[in-house]
Amino acid sequence: MSGELLDLWLEHLHGGDVGLRLRLRGVLHSECTPFQRLAVYDSPAFGKVLDLGGEIVLTDADGDLYAEALAHPAMHAHPKVEHACIIGGGDGGVARELARYPHLRSVQVVEIDQRVVEVCRSHFPNLARGLDDPRVTLIIDDGHRYMAHLDPQQRFDLIIIDAAHLYDPASETVHAHSFAEILNRHLSPNGVLVCPLGSPFHDGESCRRTLSELSAMFTHVYPYTIGIPSLPGGSMAFAWASNSGDPRQLHDHQVSWLEDLTLWEPSLTPRLFTLPKPLRRALLGSA
Known about the structure:
Order of helices and strands: EEEEEEHEHEHHEHEHHEHEEHH
Number of strands: 13
CATH superfamily of the largest domain: Vaccinia Virus protein VP39
Structural class: alpha/beta
CATH topology of the largest domain: Rossmann fold
Radius of gyration: 19 Å
Shape: globular
């Protein structure tokens, strides 16, 4: 038995119809926090895997892809992001990407679960180092509650939702205004909101509903997608929303660290927002 490999598998099911089955080498960490089941696994295919509530949310193999896709298209479509807010983001990956820009003055990271921060510091240190930048302030709180009670005069040039979806039905029912309305109030005149929508093919109805609700509040709303191999369906859709500007028109910020990135480069951004027919049908309901 000493030489026998354990036959461990992790299943990430999506909507009961599709899923991802991942062979594991072992369980590195497992606990129930006050908010969710949290586990870290080791896998041959993706390296370390962070599982929250039964869903794969981060892996060694493609965590950089997700963080770069949330941060850089917005940063380069805005003339000068100085103040940013990340809702979620306890792993530190998105904060790490924003901190690459020297003109950034402050980033608030609002993460509900302290244990996510602590476990990611232990198991995903390359991402978690983003929280150590002196411009980053970590706030342990519910994002909806925090933003709803924030000083009405507080404005951000960029708000990024680093969570599964923009809308949480349980949260929406206990607040007088939708989360998107609250976020819009705290954006500067040229401010940008970026949020994940879900799988364009398996969450199509939800994606279209969120895009429609954003379009009722923002002048410009654009979806885009990237491939993320560890997600069921292999891709993730995002929304870029603003009352000013166009994400396909880039500002030249003269960065010197492009070779350090896994995915993003300036020439990629206009192509991200050029959707092929199947994605236009899935996200916009038309070809």
